[in-house]
Amino acid sequence: MSAESLQERKRQKARNAIITAAYELFSERGFDDVTVTEIAERAEVGRTTFFRYFGDKQEVVFADDERTLAVLIGTLRREAERRRPIGDSLATALRVIRAATQEGLTGWTTTPERSAVHARLLRRHPELMARLLLKQQQQAAMIVAVLTEHGATPTVATLATQVSLACLYTAMHLAEDPARLPQIVEEAFTRLDGLGG
Description:
mainly alpha; Tetracycline Repressor, domain 2; globular; single chain
């Protein structure tokens, strides 16, 4: 095993320990009553190590975003390539995003406890929801770019992305059990079947 891969494993282990510690503490005491120092102590790392991976306490809440986004964009590219050119078909663009969203949300069902804490934090803390919405709009720009790269018109790429976000927001509001989020997102997409031609 190379020194580089050993270092990468150690980095990943430290990052995972921080995330696990943070979610345990958030579950036990809520978001406001947990400090970065307490998270670092629970993870058995120093504050400096915490800040090597996360800019602040809020960012830990969104620790899985990078993986989710990578899966989403990878699937989006594959699905868009299969259906190119998307052109002016809103229905095709929605099918591409729908397939990518289904795969991107798999983490919600593989880590149900963390997903439940995540959902609870977003409901109770407007500042976390605001941060999520900002992140989602940044991600939306990436989705629009992938769709246009695969022949979607700017109007269709933008509209399909925003409609898909509406499906996600609907599920976030309706899913009392966070483990059901992917199912409710899929149900929201199903309601769109037949629209957009």
